[in-house]
Amino acid sequence: MGKPSTIRDVAELAGVSKSTVSRYLNGDLILPPDTAKRVNDAVRALKYQRNSLARRLSMGSSETIGLAIPDIANPFFAELADAVESAAAGFRMGLALCITRNELEREAVYLGWLDTQRFDGLIFATNRPDDGALRRLIGDRRNLVLVDEDVSGLHVPKVFTDNETGGYLACRHLIEAGHRRIAHVTGPVGLFSVRERLAGYRRALREAGIRFDATLVRYGAYDRPFGRHAAQQLLALGKRPTAIFAGSDYLAVGVLETLREQGLDVPRDMSLVGFDDMEFAGLLMPPLTTLRQSVGDLGRASVEILMAALAGERSETRAPAVHGPTETVRRLPVTLMQRASVGPPILRKNSPAHLE
């Protein structure tokens, strides 16, 4: 048996430095495609057994997929991770959890791991608007599925909730309860789900003949502190809303906290609708009326689509074919969950709502 290959051998065959090979295989360096190919080819040719990663490289599969999410503490992403892990196990695939904190540098590292085959494919979730940098990083990778939020300009498989219908159902439900001054507390300006839910909200207002009032829309983060802050702003208006549609249940919790601090009852003084139907929504006081999107279905659908894409790539390797960029978009339905946080507006004499 010959002497085992070293990292120096790989570097010499690939025509790069030892540190470049080491950093690349560790996932700490993103190389140009042609350079990355030379390194990968050298690893295979020399049967370099640096670690389990090298062994998987030689086999052409890691039997692992990645899930990139901004935050594991958020119940939405925790539930998504649980669903993805369970679905991946059904395909006998492991799961690598990648916490990006919505930082481009961390996203770049995990995307680079696709090139070093630390995992075969990646399910990617972001909840910040993209200025084009993330789109360029992802490029034309075909072993990646976007879930929950879009990155404009990418032709990759995508799994989304029917956000526009959700926004429409939420606002229409409040209108049917008698409300005409309805505020909307939502996420960052320009974010995909924000645009779609706002479009549904505006469609419901338009169909009811209610003029859209931009002063009743508050953009910020999809989190509890912003829900508190937005509610404070809305209550300080000369003409208060009588109802609030929150773009997430986390936002709704923050809104509810501010309302309680100011001595306002839900739904007597303010009606409230959320979005997501997280497990805690039915445990709030009062139980929250919200739009149910199945996070479990999002996770399962993402894994199914990714595995189908990986199977297609392997068959193409055996029988090469020419394909352009493809984009599969799957939309999952939403359901209005009516609980106890919506009621008719109380129009008191000389109140802002009465003066509208």
Automatic annotation (TrEMBL):
SUPFAM superfamilies: lambda repressor-like DNA-binding domains, Periplasmic binding protein-like I
Keywords: DNA-binding, Repressor, Transcription, Transcription regulation
Domain HTH lacI-type stretches: 5-59
UniProt superkingdom: Bacteria
Domain HTH cro/C1-type: 6-39
GO MF term (any one): DNA binding
Pfam name, any one: LacI
PANTHER family: HTH-TYPE TRANSCRIPTIONAL REPRESSOR PURR-RELATED (PTHR30146:SF148), LACI-RELATED TRANSCRIPTIONAL REPRESSOR (PTHR30146)
This protein's name: LacI family DNA-binding transcriptional regulator
Organism: Robbsia betulipollinis
Lineage, uppermost ranks: Bacteria, Pseudomonadati, Pseudomonadota, Betaproteobacteria, Burkholderiales
